[in-house]
Amino acid sequence: METRKPIEELAAKVVKELEKLNYAYNTICGLRASFKRICAFAREKGEIYFSENLGREYLKERYGCIIDYCQESFPKKGKQAIRSVRLLGDYQLHGVIIRRIVKRKGYVKPPQFEEVLTAYEKECESNQYSQRGMRTRLQRLFFFVDYLSLRKVMDVNEITPGIISDYVISISPKHEKSISSILTTLRVFLRFLYLNGYTEKDLSLSVPKQNKYHYPKVPSTWEQEEVKRMLDVIDRGSPLGKRDYAILLLVAKLGIRAGDIKALKLTDLNWDTKTITIKQEKTKVETTYPILHDVGWALIDYLQNARPVCDVPYIFVRLNAPFKEFGENANLHNIITKYIRLAGIIVPRGKRHGLHSLRHTLASTLLEQGEPLAVISEILGHMDSKSTTVYLHTDLNGLRACALDPEEVFRND
């Protein structure tokens, strides 16, 4: 396949391919105009062919942004320019249009890969992956499968190290953590193909490894005063406020994950022992939480005065008919952002502020109070206490004490 074409010819081929893929007329018109601007820039620079360096230079001079858009924010006007540069680069390298965003409820497996994909799904189910983990794993894999289809690969034995390398190049603009997850998914799938006799060679060995080790970020946490302010602004006189207050308390006081809160059933509440017993969605481990005084009264207030009368077994339901449980993909993020805004809490740029941040706050508070990591790990539902060690970074006072008096630390070891 010829990889270098004059930039005008390359742009024309991309437009023709977009038309074949039934892209919207307005979208094609916008991209065509964007390609013309890139071609004019190339003529100014005396360049005949498109290159990644030319694309970078164009974005930097005309829009003040970079092609590695995951590393920094970019102006709205630069969004289409980045997309145009990416389309030209992808088509020159791969000869296909790579669709990065797929909006469809049910994925339709390409016929030539249907058997192996179905077998791999069964393998994931037998390994008891969580529903959420399996969904994200398969979504990453489907992007690779779509790429194979675009490259006219008709059998898994036609996959070559070169095709794998080209695909890895196509995901290079993504965030480092996303790339790591994609490579892991790809490596596991290709190993599955080899071990189950679908391929003659172990292609997982051709998937490159990241040279840069990913260090987990320090978790985002809130000051206790901020959590109190957020809870105080909730209108507990309304059904919506009663429900949201109970949800936020379950996260802030007990550290229950959002997915487990959505899955909470009325039968999980044991009022005689004042406990909540659930099987965690993520770890599949059964965990028991105490129904603290304020948590218990918040739940009672919601169940008696706010929860609609319905046959749904879940505790938390939507307040508008039809009264159903929260959707499969609902992360309840809108609940916390609503009350952060009402409380006038300023969220620094780049700080995560979803429900998970309340779990982080609980862990950090317990750490500051001197609770052992093993206890905190059990409360948060971590299968390995190593997952909890990241919270050591949030206990700044504890770290300062260690820095000031290391001998004291070793004596107490």
From TrEMBL:
Keywords: DNA recombination, DNA-binding. Pfam families: Phage_integrase. Residues 111-194 form the Core-binding (CB) domain. The keyword DNA-binding applies. It comes from the Bacteria. Residues 217-404 form the Tyr recombinase domain. InterPro entries: CB, DNA_brk_join_enz, Integrase-like_cat_sf, Integrase_catalytic, Integrase_recombinase_N, Tyrosine_recombinase_XerCD. SUPFAM superfamilies: DNA breaking-rejoining enzymes. Belongs to the 'phage' integrase family. This is Site-specific recombinase XerD. It comes from Anoxybacillus andreesenii.
